[in-house]
Amino acid sequence: MVFLNGESNKISKLKKVSASLRSNKISIMDKLEIQKLRDLPIEGVAERLGLKIRQHKCLCPFHDDHHASLSFHVRRNTYRCFVCGASGGTIDLAMNLLKSSGRGSFREACRWLADENNVILTEYTSSSLNSNPSTLNSSRAVVLFNHSSSIIADRQYVKSIKKDDFFPSPAAFVYTLPNITTGEIALRNGYHGETSFYLLAERNEKLMQMVIKSTFIDHDIKSVIGGWIDCPSEDEFECEISIFCKE
What is the pLDDT of residue 6? Predict the structure, then answer.
């Protein structure tokens, strides 16, 4: 068995690297993905958009407000101004506040929400989205390793839990599972081989090579996308991934 690092991509300790991998266009967004964006905590979205909230209220950005007339209903995940009548959910809020920057369309607002909250969208074009099982690649596996698990998503999930109103975000919870990374890579590229994500106490090249080699015990596997991908904080991202093949 021969292993080749024929298509390696090495990135070490990049600063301020976005963890999301997104194309410039969103051609298809299914209802589940849109619902994930609607389920994002409304107050968290508002704060990311620059609103300062106290006791579920803030100054309304849609009129000349001096008395905090914009109110947030956490359980319904909505906002409403009792002066100008502005109301809606997370996507509506993003659309209305992003208009000034030229990103006020529905798709632009969804893209902004996804980028800001690490929600991964299946941004396939209709021509690249192939649902025919006979064309899916069952010979490629995805095996990744890290130390920090999904710590950034974990922190965002904890932030969605309000002390005075316990209502954690289901959309944030999904991304507290590190194997969502391998699953998304497989989904986007039509890989139907093994997908695994291992958490290690520290980076161990010998152990990683042993696990990747063991993947080839399945004779249907001809290649493995594998390596180290760790993001311990929003300021640090470490990645070293290779494609391993067997002759």
Answer: 39
Sequential DSSP letters for 66-124: SS--EEEETTTTEEEETTT--EE-HHHHHHHHHGGGT--SHHHHHHHHHHHHTPPP---
Helices 31-38, 106-117: crossing angle, 10 deg rounding? 70
Could you tell me how many residues make up the chain?
247
- CATH 3.40.47.10 residue ranges of the chain are 9-19+127-245
Q: What pTM, to 2 d.p., does this model score?
A: 0.52
pLDDT at 134: 47
The ranges of the chain with pLDDT < 50 are 1-28, 124-131, 133-134
Strand partners, 199: 146
In which residue are the tokens 């803030």 written? 58
Alpha helices in the chain (DSSP H): 31-38, 42-48, 90-98, 106-117, 151-159, 170-174, 180-189, 205-215
Tokens of 142: 């995805």
DSSP 20: -
Considering the segment(s) 9-19+127-245 as one domain, its CATH architecture is 3-Layer(aba) Sandwich (3.40)
The phi, psi pair for 143, rounded to 5°, reads -130, 115
Cα–Cα distance, 99 to 115 (Å, whole number):
17
Predicted local distance difference test score (pLDDT) of residue 46:
93
